[in-house]
Amino acid sequence: LLRHPFQRASFYFIGRIFGRSSKHRLFIAMYGGIGLAVTVSSLFVLRRDRELVLGITRSGLLEAPLILSFFIVSGLRATFNIPYELDANWVFQITSGSGAAEFLRATKLWVLLRGIVPAYAAIGALEFYFLEPAEAVFHMAFGLAVAVLLTEFFFYRFNKLPFTCSYLPPKSQMAFLAAAYLYGFTIYTFMVAGLERWIGASP
Length: 203
Hints:
Blueprint: H1 5-20, H2 22-43, E1 44-47, E2 53-56, H3 58-80, H4 90-95, H5 100-130, H6 133-154, H7 171-201
Antiparallel strand pairs: 1-2
Helix pairs in contact: 1-5, 2-3, 3-5, 3-6, 3-7, 5-6
């Protein structure tokens, strides 16, 4: 999957930074925690007919992969903009011009293989337990397709190596992005979940 040397270097560079930097792990954990909280809140419901027993809703089960995809991809996109070692980034600025396309391919592949696939493996167990196998396969395939499109959208023209920005993003910009992501998330969930139900009703 990593045919070009720049792709291999970029892919393993991302993993090494996450392994070494507690700051970046904490940042993506924040996004992941929010996504997990939203997923759980839509997944479970109190069933009053059974003395307030927690139950899993069908709509929440179908929306869970879509919610996780959004927060994983958007969280990684925001985390990649935070430089790891700002004083050393001049090296990447003068050497990375010719490899931007390879950096982008490796980055998107890392997001899918190390971010989306593990999350879908965990949620897939619930899908196959509560749904028919054919229906579970359809929803997982639909969710993966949406995750690929989200990755393409969020990383459009991300022509740099992650963690090598030449400046720290201002706090005002991060607050604006958080508000924009929240607004986009509500529209995204409503539209994509409706599309999934429509396709599922008439494949």
